[in-house]
């Protein structure tokens, strides 16, 4: 893998991901674990945010204290599963703007079909983090990022929970300027476009559908 693919290695993330993979983990458990993992992933992916200082008063004295430099952020969720990751991210960074792109995967061709898009007007001035828990074929992520570039987005990262090697390769080839962050890269993609061993359908597992 190239330098622009980061597997966020952390014992807590690895442990929680294992709990999520278990087929008997309930919807409630899956959802709360996803929120916790989203916090941890956000902590890592925002490591390079710039800081400035602000003069504040503690109860004891004045000090120049670090604060985020106000570089504007935007999280873009690829519907519907992206919303599961998004929730935890917004909890950690409540002032971030949020965009949504609706994509579904044609079950025959496995190609991404866009049906909805709403993003902040000033997206070109923002650092954008595109989120989808599963990077499988890469088709949805590629289509979403292509669309966001047409809307003006310049500074993007892609964040997922689990990736297939095939999806990472496809996304890197289509958008080499967009670094990819994931909690794990699994063995392979199966013939139905599922990540193996994976965790099943992330949307179904978080919403209790199917
Ligand atoms: N989307 C999912 O939710 N799971 C997969 O394994 C692949 C794509």
TrEMBL record:
<feature type="binding site">
    <location>
        <position position="201"/>
    </location>
    <ligand>
        <name>5-phospho-alpha-D-ribose 1-diphosphate</name>
    </ligand>
</feature>
<dbReference type="InterPro" id="IPR029057">
    <property type="entry name" value="PRTase-like"/>
</dbReference>
<feature type="binding site">
    <location>
        <position position="105"/>
    </location>
    <ligand>
        <name>5-phospho-alpha-D-ribose 1-diphosphate</name>
    </ligand>
</feature>
<keyword id="KW-0021">Allosteric enzyme</keyword>
<dbReference type="InterPro" id="IPR050054">
    <property type="entry name" value="UPRTase/APRTase"/>
</dbReference>
<feature type="binding site">
    <location>
        <begin position="200"/>
        <end position="202"/>
    </location>
    <ligand>
        <name>uracil</name>
    </ligand>
</feature>
<comment type="similarity">
    <text>Belongs to the UPRTase family.</text>
</comment>
<dbReference type="Pfam" id="PF14681">
    <property type="entry name" value="UPRTase"/>
</dbReference>
<feature type="domain" description="Phosphoribosyltransferase">
    <location>
        <begin position="7"/>
        <end position="209"/>
    </location>
</feature>
<dbReference type="InterPro" id="IPR005765">
    <property type="entry name" value="UPRT"/>
</dbReference>
<keyword id="KW-0460">Magnesium</keyword>
<keyword id="KW-0328">Glycosyltransferase</keyword>
<dbReference type="InterPro" id="IPR034332">
    <property type="entry name" value="Upp_B"/>
</dbReference>
<dbReference type="GO" id="GO:0004845">
    <property type="term" value="F:uracil phosphoribosyltransferase activity"/>
</dbReference>
<keyword id="KW-0547">Nucleotide-binding</keyword>
<feature type="binding site">
    <location>
        <position position="195"/>
    </location>
    <ligand>
        <name>uracil</name>
    </ligand>
</feature>
<feature type="binding site">
    <location>
        <begin position="132"/>
        <end position="140"/>
    </location>
    <ligand>
        <name>5-phospho-alpha-D-ribose 1-diphosphate</name>
    </ligand>
</feature>
<dbReference type="InterPro" id="IPR000836">
    <property type="entry name" value="PRTase_dom"/>
</dbReference>
<protein>
    <recommendedName>
        <fullName>Uracil phosphoribosyltransferase</fullName>
        <ecNumber>2.4.2.9</ecNumber>
    </recommendedName>
</protein>
<comment type="pathway">
    <text>Pyrimidine metabolism; UMP biosynthesis via salvage pathway; UMP from uracil: step 1/1.</text>
</comment>
<feature type="binding site">
    <location>
        <position position="80"/>
    </location>
    <ligand>
        <name>5-phospho-alpha-D-ribose 1-diphosphate</name>
    </ligand>
</feature>
<keyword id="KW-0342">GTP-binding</keyword>
<comment type="function">
    <text>Catalyzes the conversion of uracil and 5-phospho-alpha-D-ribose 1-diphosphate (PRPP) to UMP and diphosphate.</text>
</comment>
<keyword id="KW-0808">Transferase</keyword>
């Amino acid at each position: 893998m190239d330098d622009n693919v980061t597997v966020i290695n952390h014992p807590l993330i690895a442990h929680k991901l294992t709990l999520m993979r278990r087929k008997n983990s309930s919807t409630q458990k899956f959802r709360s674990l996803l929120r916790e993992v989203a916090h941890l992933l956000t902590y890592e992916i925002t490591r390079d945010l710039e800081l400035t200082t602000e003069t504040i008063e503690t109860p004891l004295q004045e000090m120049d204290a670090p604060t985020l430099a106000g570089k504007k952020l935007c999280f873009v969720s690829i519907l519907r599963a992206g919303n599961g990751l998004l929730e935890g991210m917004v909890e950690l960074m409540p002032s971030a703007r949020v965009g949504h792109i609706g994509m579904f995967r044609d079950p025959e061709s496995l190609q991404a079909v866009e049906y909805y898009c709403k993003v902040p007007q000033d997206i070109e001035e923002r650092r954008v983090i595109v989120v989808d828990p599963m990077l499988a074929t890469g088709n949805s992520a590629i289509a979403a990022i292509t669309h966001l570039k047409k809307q003006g987005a310049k500074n993007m990262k892609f964040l997922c929970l689990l990736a297939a090697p095939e999806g990472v390769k496809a996304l890197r080839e289509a958008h080499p300027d967009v670094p990819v962050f994931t909690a794990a890269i699994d063995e392979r993609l199966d013939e139905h476009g599922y990540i193996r061993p994976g965790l099943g359908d992330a949307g179904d597992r978080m919403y209790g559908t199917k």
